[in-house]
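Researcher: Re-running this chain for the archive, since the previous output was lost when a drive failed. Same request as before.
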Amino acid sequence: MRKYPKNKHRITLRKFKVITILFLFFTAIVCGQQQAYKLLYNTPASDFLPDSPRKRKVKSGFMEQALPIGNGRLGLMFNGGIDTEYLVLNEITTWMNTSRGMDEVSQSGVQLESYKHLEDLRKATRNGQYGTGKNSIESLGTKYFGSKTKLGNYAPFSNIFISTGHNSEKVEKYQRSLDLETGIGSVNYKIGTTNFTREYFCSYLDDIVVVKYKSDGELLNLKIKTATKHKTKINKASGNQIILEGETPMIKNNMEFMQIVHIISDTGSIQTSSEEGVLSVNNAKDVTVYISGYSDYLPNYPTFKGRNFRNDTKNTISKALEVGYHQIKKNHSKDVSNLMDRCQLNLEFQSSGLTTDELLKKEQSSELENLYFNYARYLQTACSRGTAGPSNLQGIWSGYLKPMWNSDYHNDINLAMNYWMVETTNLPELFSPYLAWMKIIAESGKYTAKEAFGAKRGWSTGLNSNVFGFTAQNEHGRRMQHSGAWLSQNLYEHFSFSRDKKQLEEIYPIIKGAAEFYLEFLAPWKDGTLLVYPTWSPENDFLSDKFSKLNKQSYGASYDQQLIYNLFVDCIEASVLLNIDEDFRQELKNSIPKFSPQKIGQYGQLQEWPEDLDKPDDDHRHISHLIALHPGRDISLLTNAELANAAQTTLNHRHTIKGSGWTTAWRISFWARLQNGNKAYEFYKLLCKERTNLNLFNGKDYFQIDGNFGGPAGVCEMLLQSHLRSINIDAKNIKEAAFNGYQKDAENQKHFYPVVPDDKLAYAPYIIHLLPALPDVWANGSVKGLRARGGFEVDIDWKKGKLEKAKIYAINGGDFRIYLDDKLSKVITLKKGESINWNDN
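Model: Regenerated structure tokens:
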């Protein structure tokens, strides 16, 4: 055998193999994490967008395949077309087919003096006048309370077409992608020996869309055209700009808007065309396109008008040109990365190298599930930031003149779900558009509360709303709803995660106004208990054999009672913390014991209505009467197992999932709160695979963004929960320690009445429950930067389904307890900036 001289630098074959294996292992990890932050495709998206998604069989594929960018105010989708690039631009305030600038009362949409007919409506309810007949609850509700003001719909802003003249048959190595870590979209392909590249991003800091085309060989010859689906007043190409002005049709006070497309090419020439709104760029190595646009909207009730949109558009372009492409891109990438890096989910997987559409075909893919979570956080940064309007049913992306459900604000589960994960995934500043809009709703809702229901205090809003302060009841009496409690829940949750009293001072007038309305609107039922009526349990029907499936209007729906109790407790806590409104606080406390109870029905289910009308074969997508389980906190296996088991029975009855993704998403959180990780995962997997389009937008039949947000919010609930409070700080087990919102009636074991909270609940430590619903399939992993109520951030690592270590950081300082494996820690106190490590020992 040949012998080699000893050399400390010599690498043996064995060492080489070890190093190679380790290199491949860590490369797989790094690539895996890169893959978890990128949407990737080998083909362009469709470039044809029909005017209405209602013709579902005519779907073009654009909304299901194109990739989104945005900055909260502007949203753009690009399809990456080879011959022609199709860009759809939206602006969050642009609406049509409604009214603005009316007097304060009329702007709310309320029917004047509807309150005079409230007792007639309640009498019909007490007499059981169901169905759709002449004197039914529904017909009376439509006649006297249904708004005559058109709600209108969210509207597209403009379309931009960029033609290259490239032949798709000659293209090689095509790739279209969206980097979630930087918020930059890209297209790359090769023709002959020339590489063509494109970049797309929408800067929040500079409030502008940027598109860049580059070539490293053959010169670019582009034709850039703008258009709008609305009335065009100006579409003029001059110099290196295309100026577009238009107006959306309104019933009163049309909405005006302006867009400027500014083109720069240091190496090519720019020429105008005889065609309206067209510029040509010839013989260029690179072309940069800046896009800015504004409407005349201002969030001032009731005018909603007054922005100097022309000056703002021009000034934004001028400032962007001063900053320059490279600095705008650098600032944008850093800005998005700072938000994305705060919270990181790392499920154990090796990168498959598959494109996103190929990932969707896999039977099970932790890679896809990780990507879906990150995509949701990216979409949050792109569609809810620094504006006067929250994300709507389509977030901010819609190219339709007649979008499904008007792409409006549904003031129940849909809008609420859009903001669940803002808190848990460490994006609290993205809540500001919701809060800004809620101030408008509370102002408008005062007129609705007074005119519709005769309330002298507080505010009210119905099921649907828009950016113009619509708070009236839906035009159809079948959908009478009072959404103030639902909308207010998100407000107090926002404070709960920070415990910042300045935030509490800002939200308190809004939630107080919501509670004041319910104090006046709650009415005694035949049994003497207080409940809401008329109302409905969202979208579900009852006694359909007798009154048809249109029979929806009822009384005392369980979800109403749960939400109002939640709201009253929030207001009691807030008044204690702020040391104000002691009389109001007592009024709330006096009201709570009179509430109609939650009831367990004949099948062991949590009843949806006061009467036991539930059916085991009911497969309706809504399960709103479990809202106290999630996102509420008053039904828990750990505090009142009987109600939690009843909720589980309801979930088992509603096991068949039909329709949109939001209902799939909500079930993830329900099962997570029931500490069933495998069942929660089953629905998360279903959401990621079966309720998802090629671009991972939620909704197979039509895009609706709430599922994109609700699913990952459920993942957070699987890994960390913090909704329970330790009102008894000396108790050693969680059932004795945690506040229990419902107590069993001594006379009827199936009835549970809400509990009046002690003032000390306001200061009770939150209980941080680690890995409450970890599924078997995610045996190993970690998550960084989840937020817990009380003002804490939490990092968690787990192996073989068990906690390995956790680290809790104090954002503002405070007390908490840790719950893990049926063990409850003592109260732990951390000062601001301090942290503590925790393991399973």
